[in-house]
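User: I'm putting together notes for a lab meeting next week and I want to include a structural view of one of the chains we've been expressing. I don't have a solved structure, so I'd like a prediction I can at least talk through. The sequence is below, exactly as it appears in our construct file.
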Amino acid sequence: MLQDALVEPILRQSGPGYEPWNGKRLVIVASDVAISEQFVFGVVGTETVDAIRPGISPDVREKLVPAKQMGLRFPELEFTVFLHSGSVLEVVCKALHIVVSS
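Assistant: Thanks for the context. Below is the predicted structure for the 102-residue chain, given as structure tokens.
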């Protein structure tokens, strides 16, 4: 499991050419997910992660406004996963764990 202290540097550095992940299998686990929005293209075979970046889109952030106005609180960890197919996954959660294997 990835230690939480390492999440932010990896979010900043991940993407094409991120050497520790090249050619590896990634399992990305978001814990205590408050919101998740996906735009998914179907693929045959294995999908490739192009990048994992901190933050969410303005559209997803706007969807949080009514809940925040009612007093709901959201975890601070926000990230977006960009896949080679063009699929995008945006998440607001408490913790992110990335398991890297051969």
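A couple of points you could mention at the meeting. The two ends are 15 Å apart (CA to CA). Residues 80 and 90 are 4 Å apart (CA to CA).

User: Perfect, that's what I needed.
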